[in-house]
Amino acid sequence: MKLKILIILFLALSLRLFGLNNQSFSVDEGISWLLSLGNLKEIILNLKNFYEVHPPLYFFLLHNWKNLAFFLTNLKISNSEFILRLSSVVCSFLSLYFTYLLARKKLSENLAFLVLVLMSFSAFEIILAQELRMYPLLSFLSVASLYYFLLFLENNKIKNRLFYLFFSILSIYTHYFSFFIILAENIYFLYNYKIHKKNFVLWIILQLIILISFLPWIKFFIFQTQAQDFSLRDAPNLFSSLNLIFNLTFSSMLTYYKINFIFLFFFPLGLLILGVFNFKYQKNFWIICFFLPLILVFLISQSNLKIFEYKYFIIILPAFFSLMALGLEKLNKKLASALIGFFIILNLFSLYLHHFNLEFQNQPWRSAAGLLNQNAKKDDLIIIHPSMFYAPLAYYYQGSSEVLSMDYRDKTKINKKYHNIWLVFPPNHPFCIKIKLKDYLLKSFALKQTFASIKKIPANNIEVDLFQFPKRELK
To answer: Are the CB atoms for 312 and 142 separated by under 8 Å?
Structure first.
């Protein structure tokens, strides 16, 4: 492997490891951790309880990653934020390598290297690579499926067939957006049917195997689509699609920054257009892999099944940067080099905001749990609202108090045996909901005793309220 590729991979790995455990787990990361505590049967059961909309493979692999880390280290280290998130970094790194191999199949060596550079410094990809979620694994499995798909078209030997099936089946059990990649592969195969018609029967058999492998999960898939109310999301529009392209290029950090970056939209759009009209290379493969998932998700999301989520589009990142590289190839070297430098600087700036600007960081559940670890006693009760925020608090809280997730509409009865009640709200929680829940707690004890005092304790924007019972008289 050439030295310049090793240098870029080293820089890419360094960027993904930097600040890996600086931020608290987000709610989604907490759910990933909580689901990974069980075995496969328990994970599938808890997918319903947490209304998780993804297949179970990632959580099962995370469970085994923790077991491997425990075998190699110890319990405390194996359950640390760094070790857990390291699983995502590994998948991201593998995704980078396979993206380079994929690009080399369809582009020149220099353009494949350029694609590797763009993806290595992509803030969008790096931020996802530092999350305890399935997106880096989805990216790795999808690009590996595409790579072995191209190898199959070149040579249908059994090794290529088996690897294609392996990565494709794993990908659909990781994230449902993988089906868009498999559909793109089928469209590309049919588009080039005359060239590959000798493999048509074999290709149909491979696709049937993939579909049959998903049949055991189809019932649960239908349940997930019905249980989750996707209609509450906004339907995407043209601006959503343009904003997606901007996010893929620079991440969402610049989107919310207090400077008008509208002119930056022309940077990725211009390169995409140039890439599409670069007739020096066969770019139909990249066009299909980029535009087909984008268009289908856009159309599907006009119904009640609104699945347009920026993070999910990590599957089109290799095709996106390949088209950008084709666009840069049409420019003169000085201008292309300047734009590449511009891209790297802005993405590094996005990473700076991600790591050091509190406005863009995860909610500080580590700090809130630290406050409770120090102050909550064995006979206290901790109530977290809404219930979805139970997961990250449960990860950080190490005390002996009982922790209960509760909604203000719940009829949960709180036993008077508790000494204090701690009420925890996430940042920016609706004020009316806080009042209703506090009133519920007060009224539930109105016939017995009222609270003697209410003391509010701030914990880095997470609100923690302490409800104290009056001192009881000794008999």
So the answer is: no
Q: Please give the Cα distance from 411 to 226 (Å, whole number).
A: 26
Do β-strands 402-405 and 453-459 pair in parallel, antiparallel, or remain unpaired? unpaired
Q: How far is CA 364 from the centre of its chain?
A: 19
CB distance 31 to 132 below 8 Å: no
Dihedral over alpha carbons 101, 107, 111, 113 (to 10 degrees):
10
Give strand pairing partners of 405.
Answer: 384
* Dihedral, 108, 112, 118, 120 alpha carbons, nearest 10: -160
Task: Give the count of alpha carbons within 13 A of 433, CB side only.
Answer: 17
* Helix, strand or coil, per DSSP, at residue 337: helix
The 10s digit of each residue's pLDDT in 32-80 is: 999 999 999 999 988 887 778 899 999 999 999 998 888 887 666 778 8
Contacts 24+ apart (CB under 8 A), 372-376: 372/397, 372/399, 372/401, 372/422, 372/424, 372/464, 373/397, 373/398, 373/399, 375/457, 375/466, 376/401, 376/420, 376/422
pTM of the model: 0.91
> Within 13 Å and on the Cβ side, how many CA atoms surround 457?
19
